[in-house]
Amino acid sequence: MPDSNHPLTEPLPDLQKALINVSYLLMDLYNLSNPMLLSHGRSLAKLSEGLARHLGWSEEAVRTVFLGALFHDLGYLATPLELVGSPLPEDHRPPNMEVDHTILGARLLARVEVLRNIIPVVRHHHEHLDGSGFPDGLKGQAIPAEARLVGVVHAYQNLRHGYGPTPALGDRAAREVMQEDSGLLWDPVMVRGLLAFLGPVEPDREDEIDLS
Ligand SMILES: [Fe+2]
Ligand SMILES: [Fe+2]
């Protein structure tokens, strides 16, 4: 998290201090609105930052990835609390709810000058390499690199933790799904990097789903 001991925040010129202050404000708003959104963003930010560093990205790119991941679902602030991550079937949710959160999040941030560089992450974290993602159906390298990275980490985390009606998978099963979709949905260099960065496969716990 961006705090006084975090390498991302020190030493900081005034503009970057302003950025962190705005970030704290957004985090407070998140927490008031939906604590789940904040913890989802925090864990995504931490793992995305680690992967970006593992891949040797610049400090500026690492910061963009970290803050972009932290606020990637900002647009859900406009969605009723009980519907975010809800196990309800799609026809019981507002139409376009998933697409709208990417567009709204990007629009909200357009007014915050110091956070403009994280807009591509917020808008494009659900794009897929093959163009099947949203909101713009971007393909391959047309998806900004920071958004591609956060998208990869996001997919892995959602597999591990479960999302909506989709149950959580063990580490091994989640990695297998990521490898199956590597090159189709996800940037293969980033998938390889993520699996290397994660290190040895975590042993399955008894309460996790057995896919065999
Ligand atoms: Fe999202
Ligand atoms: Fe998310």
Descriptive key words:
Hypothetical protein af1432; binds fe (ii) ion; 212 residues; single chain; 8 helices; 52% helix; mainly alpha
CATH topology: Hypothetical protein af1432
Which consecutive residue ranges, at least 5 long each, have pLDDT under 50? none
Q: Could you report the average pLDDT, rounded to the nearest whole number?
A: 86
Tell me the total number of β-strands. Answer: 0
Range of helix content: 40-55%
Structural class: mainly alpha
Question: How many discrete structural domains?
Answer: 1
Q: Which shape, going by the Cα principal axes?
A: globular
Q: Write the CATH homologous superfamily.
A: Hypothetical protein af1432
Terminus-to-terminus distance: 38 Å
Instruction: Label the CATH architecture.
Output: Orthogonal Bundle
Radius of gyration: 17 Å
CATH class: Mainly Alpha
Number of helices: 8
- Strand residue percentage: under 5%
The ligands bound in this entry are: fe (ii) ion
Could you describe the largest sheet, including whether it forms a barrel? none
The string of secondary-structure elements, in order, is HHHHHHHH
Describe this structure in words.
With 212 residues, the protein is an all-alpha fold. It has a single domain (7-198), classed as Hypothetical protein af1432, CATH 1.10.3210. It has eight helices and no strands. Helix 2 crosses helix 6 and helix 6 (145-161) runs antiparallel to helix 7 (171-181). It is globular. It starts with 13 loop residues before the first helix and ends in a 14-residue tail after the last helix. The model has no long low-confidence stretch (mean pLDDT 86). Bound molecules: fe (ii) ion (2 copies). One fe (ii) ion is lined by residues 40, 72-73, 154.
